[in-house]
User: Fold these one by one.
Assistant:
Number 1:
Amino acid sequence: MAVEILMPALSPTMEEGTLAKWLVKEGDAVKSGQILAEIETDKATMEFEAVDEGVVGKLLIAEGTAGVKVNTPIAVLLEDGEDASSVAAQPSSATPVAAKSDAKASDERPVAAPAPAAPVSGGARVFASPLARRIARDKGLDLTKVAGSGPHGRIVRADVEGAVPLAAPVVATTVAAATVATKPAIAAMPAGMAAETVMKMYADRQYDEIPLDGMRRTIAARLTEAKQTIPHFYLRRSVRLDALMAFRETLNKQLEGRGIKLSVNDFIIKACAMALQAVPNANAVWAGDRILRLKPSDVAVAVAIEGGLFTPVLRDADKKSLSALSAEMKDLAGRAKTKKLAPHEYQGGSFAISNLGMMGIENFDAVINPPHGSILAVGAGLKQPVVLADGTLGVATVMSMTLSVDHRVIDGALGAEFLKAVIDALENPMVMLA
C-alpha cells in the first residue's frame, strides 16, 4: 500500500517550513535512513531521512516551496509491485490539507460582528443608527421602547446613551453578535498598523518590499511577545577590564602554540556561568504558572547572521575551561552563520549574553528571550578617567553592562547580587582558572 510522506516537525516549535531541495526523484528506490530532502525551519536547514523502504511514486510538493505546514503530505512512497500511475491519477492530498488549514485559520481570525438587525414593533421596523444599535446591545436596551430624536424619528447615539437599561440584557439576534457580547475579553493583541496602511503612506516614494522569511517572522513574534508579556527591569554596572586584558594577553601568548586565542567574550561567558552557580536563585526561567530553577549553567550567546540571529547554548559552561568554551563558541557561531545548528543547540538555557561591544556600541538594553529569566547586554570597553584606590585620577578600560531582568523570576536585589558576581569574576580573572 502506498505511504504518504508527511512534512516533519524538525523542532518542538516548528509549525511550517520550506522544502528547500529534493535529494531523490520520482522512480528512485529508497532505503530506511536515506536522506530524502533538505528542509529549512525558521532557524536551520536540516536533512530529512526516510523511515520506510520503497519507491518514490510522486513528489507532491515542489522544491523551493515555502510555508509548508507540518504533517502536510509532501511525497508518496510505493511498495514493491505498486504502479506509480495509480498514484498520479489521484488528486494530491497536499492541496486539501493546505486549504483546510487556511480555512481553519480564517475561521479563527477575529471577525467584526455585524450590527444587529433593527427590532420591529407591531410589524414596523424601528430605525436606528448602527452605532445606536451597538450601544443598545451593550447596555441591554430594548430599542422599541426608546424614542428617536434623529431625522424621521431615527434613534441616534444620544438617545441610547441616556436611556436606562433593562434588568436583563436583550438576547443578541445573531450568533456573531452573541459571541462578541458574551466574550468581550477575547481580543487580539495590538498588531500595529496594517501593511496596506503603511504602504499607502509611502505610495509616492520608491521602496523595495522585502517579504518575511521564517526566521524574521519568528524573531518578530517572539520579541513582540517578550516586550508585551515580560515585565522587564534593568540593572546597570560598569566593570574595569585592565586586569582581565593583561591576564588575557599573558594567556594568549602561552596558548599561541596550540592555536588558541581567547576573546574577551570567552571570559564574559565563563564569568556568567560561574555567577549562575554562585547565585543559584538567578539561574531560573519562567514556565507559565511556575518558576524552573536550573542546576547547570547553560549560557546562550546571541550570534548575528544575515537576516536575523541565533542564540546557541553552551551547556554546563561553568564546568568547561576557557579554551574549551572558546573552541565550542567558535564552532557554534560558524555553524549558526550557515544555519547548520540542530534545534537542541540553540534552544534552552536560562540566561543569555548579547555583546555589541565589538561593534562600538557603548551600552544598550537587550530584550529577554523567553523563557529566560534575564539577558546581559555588553558594551564596548573604553578608556576613561577614573578615581584610583589612592584617590588620585587615572585612566582605565571600562565596559558598560546592562542586565535585563524578568521581574516575575528575579527581583531587584537578586539581580543585583548576580550582576555583582559577574563583575567580581571579570575584575579578578584568576578565579576563572580555579
Number 2:
Amino acid sequence: MFTDGQLRRVLHACDRYPERNSFGHDNPARVHAFVLTLRYSGLRIGDGVGLRKEHLDGDRLFLQTQKSGESVYVPLPESVVDALQEIENGNDYFFWTGRGLRKSAVADWQRSLRRVFADTKVSGNAHMFRHTFATDLLTPACCRRLE
C-alpha cells in the first residue's frame, strides 16, 4: 500500500516524465492519468492498459476484467475523469494503441512505472495501487483519504 506522501511523490514524478515517445504522445499526462486510474479504480495493470474509452460513462467505469471475466463498476473521482478525458491518442483505448499484444503494452507500462518509482525513490509496483484502493474501501468513510 502507498502512503499519501508516496502517492504525492509518484504523481509529481509523473509530471516530470519525458514529454514524448516514438508515438508522439503527451507522456506526462498519460502516465499521470494511468497512475490515477490504477489508484482509484483498483484495476490490475492489464485491465488498466486495455481500458477502452467506451468503458467510461460520465464518472463511472464499467468493464469486464481480462483475467477473471468479472464485471467491474467503479465510480471515479472527478480528477481521474478529467485526466482521462485529457488523453487524446486517436484510438479507442486510453493507454494502448490496440495494435500488437496487450502483454507487450503491459510490459511497456511496467517499465514506465519503474522509471517513475525510481525517480521518487519509492519502492513500489502497479499492484500496490490496487492494495491502496482496497484499503481505502475498507476504511470507514469518516477516515478515508481526501484527494
Number 3:
Amino acid sequence: MRIAVPNKGRLHEPTVELLERAGLHIKNGADRKLYADTVDPEVSLLFARAADIPEYVDDGAAEVGITGLDQVHESDSDLSELLDLEYGQCRLVLAAPEDGEITEPGHLEGKKVATEFPRITEQYFRAEGVECEIVEVTGATELTPHVEMADAIVDITSTGTTLKVNRLAVIDEVLSSSVRLFAREETVSNPKVEQLVTALESVLAADDKRYLMMNIEHEKLEAVKDVIPGLGGPTVMDVAGGDQVAVHVVVDQQQVFEVINDLKAVGATGILVTEIERLVE
C-alpha cells in the first residue's frame, strides 16, 4: 500500500508525525524524497504537493492520500473520505474590501472574483445563483481587489489576520476544511487500508486522554468510582500484602486537574498521570 502525503508546507510535519505515532516509522527520514519505505514492508510513502495528492490517488499511483478537504473538492476527484485527521483546520471564505459596496454574494453579479480555487468558487456561485467572472490566480490573492484585478476573492484563511491586514472583510464561508484521509472506493475495504484507519483513529482517540493510576483502601473504592469519569469504568486490581487496591482509568485531559484533587480528598494515594500514545476503542 502506498500513502500519498504532503511533501512540504504546513501539512508536511504534522502528517509525518501522525504516521510515526501510528507506528509507521519512516526509514531514512522524510526530507527531499519522492518515495520512502516504512518499517512495514507492505507500506510506503509517496511525497507530493498537497494539491496533487487527490489526482495521485484517483489515478492509482497511491492507494490512499492525506491532504486537505479543500484540495479534494478543488480537484473534483471521486474519492471516499475515510477519516478526519483533525489538523490543518482552515476556512475557504468569500471576502471583499472593508467598507465597500459588496456585503453579500448577490452583489457580485457580473463582477470579478479572484481565487486559487476556481472549481470550488464556480460551484459556490452556481449554488448561490450568481453569475460572475472567476479570475484564477496562483498567489497573493488578497492583493487583487486593491489593484483592480477583482472585486472580491475566495481564499483560504486560518486566523483571518492576513485578510484584516489587507483590509478585507469576510462575506461568507465557502468551505470548512481540515486534513483528511482519502481513498479510492475500490480500495476502502483493503485490509491494509482498514489497518491504517484503525491505527490513525487510535492516535486521535488518545490525543486528549490521560491514564490515571492510584492506590486506595478497598472500603473507599466506591467513593473513587463516584469521582472518576472514566472510559468504561476503572480497572481494579488487588495490591499484594495489604488491604489496598490499584485503580487504573482513562479520563479526559481537561478533567485531570479537578479529578486529582477529588481523588486525594477521598483517600487515593500514589496517583500517577501519564500520556497515552494510542487508544483503540
Number 4:
Amino acid sequence: MAHDLIAAPAVPAMDAHAIAMVRELQAQLETLPQVPVRMHHVLHGGMYARTCYIPAGHLLACCLVRVPTIVVLAGSANVYVGKDEPLRLEGYSVLPASAGRKQAFLSVTDFALTMFYATKAKTVAEAEDELTGESEMLASRRDKLNTVIITGE
C-alpha cells in the first residue's frame, strides 16, 4: 500500500533575537482574552507526551522548550521558528525539534500539536518543569482542562 508522506523540516533551536520576538508577541497576547486550551498528558514507559488542541484562527506563543522533542502536528498552521518565513505545516507532520526554541503557531484549521520526549518524571508537573523554565505560563496550568494518563510503567 502506498502512502503519501509529507516531508517536513526539522524545527531548529532559535537565536536570542527570535526568542525575544516571541516573548514580545506573548506579552501582547496576554493582554487579550485567552481561549481555553484543552491538554492531554501521557506519562508512559519513560516518555512524556503533551497534546494541545487549538481551534482554527488562533495564535499561540509557546514556552521556551529546553529539551529536544519530537513534534507531531495534525491540521494546518503557520509556525514561526526564527526564520524570515514561517513553516507552513499541513496535514499530518512528524518533526524532530531541537532544544532552545520558543515558537509561535497561527492555526489555519483546528489542529492538535503533540510534543514528546524521554523523561524520568513521575508527574505532569515534574515533566513540565523539565520541559521549560516557564511552566507557570503553560496553558495546562492556566486553564486546567487536562486529561492525564500516568501508567507507572
